[in-house]
């Protein structure tokens, strides 16, 4: 799990929640978020995301990816903030903000 800007992201499923409420992400949005959450703070290439989420035949469909990333951002980030969580890395792809920090489960935390 990662906690980023008030969001909790399950790095395996791509599910996201804010203040305990699950966000209504589509399957493709969850897959995109999972790709980013697997490498917080590091750029993930557009080609890698397209291939892993849609398949090799979509590898060059950058406009397609931009539309989906815009949809994902609109669900994860407040409209007035601009892209604070998911950032575009020109000529490479996207990254999940490096401020992402691992979250321990409640059971692990209570043993401390």
User: What kind of assembly state do the chains in view correspond to?
Assistant: single chain
CATH first level: which class? Mainly Alpha
What average pLDDT do the residues reach?
82
Helix and strand run: EEEEHEHHEEEH
- Count up the domains: 1
CATH level 3 topology: Arc Repressor Mutant, subunit A
Going across the major beta sheet, what is the strand order?
4-3-2-1-8
Counting DSSP E segments of at least 2 residues, the number of strands comes to 8
Helix content: 25-40%
The appropriate CATH architecture is Orthogonal Bundle
| Shape annotation | globular
The count of helical stretches stands at 4
Gap from first CA to last CA? 18 Å
Largest sheet: 5 strands, antiparallel
CATH superfamily: Winged helix-like DNA-binding domain superfamily/Winged helix DNA-binding domain
Low-confidence stretches: 102-112
β-strand percent reads 15-25%
Helix-strand makeup class: alpha+beta
- Rg on CA atoms, Å: 14 Å
Task: Give a short summary of the structure.
This protein has 112 residues and is of the alpha+beta class. 36% of the residues lie in helices and 21% in strands. The strands form 2 sheets. It has a 5-stranded antiparallel β-sheet with strand order 4-3-2-1-8, covered by helices on one side. It has a 3-stranded antiparallel β-sheet with strand order 5-7-6.
Written overview of the protein:
The chain is α+β, with helices and mostly antiparallel strands. The protein has one domain (2-110): Arc Repressor Mutant, subunit A (Orthogonal Bundle), CATH 1.10.10.10. It contains 4 helices and 8 strands, in the order ββββαβααβββα. The protein has a 5-stranded antiparallel β-sheet with strand order 4-3-2-1-8, with helices on one face. Strand 1 and strand 2 (7-9) form a beta hairpin. The radius of gyration is 14 Å and the shape is globular. The two termini are 18 Å apart.
């Amino acid at each position: 799990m990662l906690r980023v800007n008030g969001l909790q992201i399950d790095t395996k499923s791509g599910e996201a929640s804010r203040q305990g409420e699950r966000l209504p992400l589509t399957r493709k949005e969850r897959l995109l978020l999972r790709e980013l959450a697997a490498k917080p703070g590091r750029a993930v290439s557009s080609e890698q995301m397209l291939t892993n989420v849609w398949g090799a035949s979509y590898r060059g469909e950058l406009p397609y990816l931009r539309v989906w990333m815009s949809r994902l951002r609109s669900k994860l980030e407040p409209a007035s903030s601009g892209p604070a969580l998911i950032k575009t890395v020109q000529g490479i792809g996207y990254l999940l903000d490096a401020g992402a920090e691992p979250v321990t489960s409640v059971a692990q935390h209570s043993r401390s």
